[in-house]
Known about the structure:
It is built from 3 helices and 2 strands, in the order αααββ. By secondary structure, the protein is mainly α. It has a two-stranded antiparallel sheet. Mean pLDDT is 79; it is low at 4-18.
Amino acid sequence: MKKKCVMRLEPTWVSASCDKPRLILGKLRTKGPMRPRQISRSCFQLTAPALDNALNWLEDRNLVVFRLDGWVQAVN
């Protein structure tokens, strides 16, 4: 009996082989708060729209917060 392949509906910017939001969250949890530019530089060389989409996806799920001083912080 064959298993059915269940497709998860994800935004188009999330590639199947590299879950950028998950990687960003992991980096924020290990390094602490970072500026968006630091996240892009140190993690993945993301384009600005891809980084914005990933951070917005994380914020929508209450996994990160954008602080007033411009830093992004993981929610514990």
